[in-house]
């Protein structure tokens, strides 16, 4: 590692959110990395961009229920006639929710095909042109050529490449920009009044964004991220680990050099009944983003507030906590197992440490996108030890929907 390593330098978003390098190391497993040797250096996830059926209400949901702050807006009032877009922040994590206003908005066609979902996992990069030149040479589909966009707050340089399904990675260099989000957006403010004692925020950062791809395509997409974006392989799950009696999946994880950006990729595996990944692919209309994991440093209070706000989580059977094997495997964690059991929080341990995690039910009408909340204590894993308990719980839900 050279002394010029920049990886543990914080992004302006992280600094603004009051995070420090040690917290990020713990929260999202940030590692040192020398961008000079990286063919496709990535600073961080810039934003998760959703297309939804009703952006106005979805933005309200993220503010009221997920405790996010509204920071920017674009729509008819700002000259964008066909759509509305709301930008929300929690710590260094940024969501953008977009919806069609005029009946001929292409966003409505997207929504008809996919329902509420993630259209863009936008990445902040220091050199858009370098990334695009490398991606193109490696065979990526360039959806938007590098171009400058400016307003009174400065200039961003941007481009976009295609990934699985109708999902894209917009690449943004915002080093010369000081506005609230991107040119065309105006600053906006949350009008929600939080009750006394409400935590400052319910999550601090995006930990990972999972993609579901078709049967037999996982390795192809792992190869894409290795080759096109220089991502490294982090962990590997094989079918047996994740298979339950009826449905199964395979999963591999790729990460950017500094590990700030982590993309697990799932494909269905052959099983007796329909895999949960097949259910997703059917209802999303093809490959797409399955879940977003949000990093919190206090999962107990986060879950308590979310539950009080009406969020429904996947249930975990009491037997999970009472299993002596699990108790032996997880050893000592920062809270009593009873506290985890009360809330249905899962725990997993590996050679580096442990993690606490919980999953919501799908957040839209279709059984597609959902959220995970994760509190890491050294573990850089993804809860491999919980996959079986988790999937049995998922299957109960799938069965209730008549899709198993
Ligand atoms: Fe996850």
Automatic annotation (TrEMBL):
<dbReference type="InterPro" id="IPR004360">
    <property type="entry name" value="Glyas_Fos-R_dOase_dom"/>
</dbReference>
<feature type="domain" description="VOC">
    <location>
        <begin position="44"/>
        <end position="174"/>
    </location>
</feature>
<feature type="domain" description="VOC">
    <location>
        <begin position="205"/>
        <end position="361"/>
    </location>
</feature>
<keyword id="KW-0479">Metal-binding</keyword>
<keyword id="KW-0677">Repeat</keyword>
<dbReference type="Pfam" id="PF00903">
    <property type="entry name" value="Glyoxalase"/>
</dbReference>
<keyword id="KW-0560">Oxidoreductase</keyword>
<comment type="similarity">
    <text>Belongs to the 4HPPD family.</text>
</comment>
<keyword id="KW-0408">Iron</keyword>
<dbReference type="InterPro" id="IPR041735">
    <property type="entry name" value="4OHPhenylPyrv_dOase_C"/>
</dbReference>
<dbReference type="InterPro" id="IPR005956">
    <property type="entry name" value="4OHPhenylPyrv_dOase"/>
</dbReference>
<dbReference type="InterPro" id="IPR037523">
    <property type="entry name" value="VOC_core"/>
</dbReference>
<dbReference type="InterPro" id="IPR041736">
    <property type="entry name" value="4OHPhenylPyrv_dOase_N"/>
</dbReference>
<dbReference type="GO" id="GO:0003868">
    <property type="term" value="F:4-hydroxyphenylpyruvate dioxygenase activity"/>
</dbReference>
<protein>
    <submittedName>
        <fullName>4-hydroxyphenylpyruvate dioxygenase</fullName>
        <ecNumber>1.13.11.27</ecNumber>
    </submittedName>
</protein>
<keyword id="KW-0223">Dioxygenase</keyword>
<dbReference type="InterPro" id="IPR029068">
    <property type="entry name" value="Glyas_Bleomycin-R_OHBP_Dase"/>
</dbReference>
């Amino acid at each position: 590692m050279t002394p010029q390593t920049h990886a543990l330098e914080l992004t302006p978003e992280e600094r603004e959110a009051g995070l420090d390098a040690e917290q990020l190391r713990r929260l999202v497993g940030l590692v040192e990395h020398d961008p000079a040797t990286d063919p496709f250096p990535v600073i961080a996830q810039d934003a998760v961009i959703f297309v939804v059926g009703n952006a106005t209400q979805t933005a309200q949901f993220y503010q009221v229920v997920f405790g996010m702050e509204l920071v920017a807006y674009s729509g008819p009032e700002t000259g964008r006639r066909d759509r509305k877009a709301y930008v929300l922040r929690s710590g260094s994590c940024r969501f953008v929710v977009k919806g069609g206003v005029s009946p001929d908005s292409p966003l409505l066609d997207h929504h008809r095909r996919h329902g509420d979902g993630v259209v863009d996992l936008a990445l902040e990069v220091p050199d858009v042109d370098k990334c695009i030149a490398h991606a193109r040479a490696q065979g990526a589909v360039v959806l938007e050529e590098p171009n400058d966009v400016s307003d009174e707050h400065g200039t961003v340089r941007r481009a976009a490449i295609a990934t699985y399904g109708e999902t894209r990675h917009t690449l943004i260099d915002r080093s010369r920009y000081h506005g609230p989000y991107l040119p065309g957006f105006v600053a906006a403010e949350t009008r929600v009044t939080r009750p006394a004692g409400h935590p400052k925020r319910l999550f601090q950062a995006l930990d990972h964004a999972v993609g579901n791809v078709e049967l037999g395509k996982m390795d192809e997409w792992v190869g894409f991220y290795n080759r096109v974006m220089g991502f490294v392989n982090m962990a590997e799950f094989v079918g047996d680990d994740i298979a339950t009696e009826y449905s199964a999946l395979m999963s591999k994880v790729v990460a950017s050099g500094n590990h700030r950006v982590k993309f697990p990729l799932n494909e269905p595996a052959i099983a007796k009944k329909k895999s949960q990944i097949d259910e997703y692919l059917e209802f999303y209309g093809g490959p797409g983003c399955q879940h977003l994991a949000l990093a919190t440093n206090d999962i107990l209070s986060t879950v308590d507030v979310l539950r009080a706000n009406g969020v429904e989580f996947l249930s975990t059977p009491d037997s999970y906590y009472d299993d002596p094997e699990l108790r032996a495997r997880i050893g000592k964690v920062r809270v009593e197992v009873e506290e985890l059991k009360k809330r249905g929080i899962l725990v997993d341990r590996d050679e580096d440490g442990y993690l606490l995690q919980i999953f919501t039910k799908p957040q839209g009408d279709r059984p597609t996108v959902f959220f995970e909340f994760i509190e890491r204590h050294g573990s850089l894993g993804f809860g491999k030890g919980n996959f079986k308990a988790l999937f049995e719980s998922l299957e109960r839900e799938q069965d209730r929907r008549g899709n198993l």
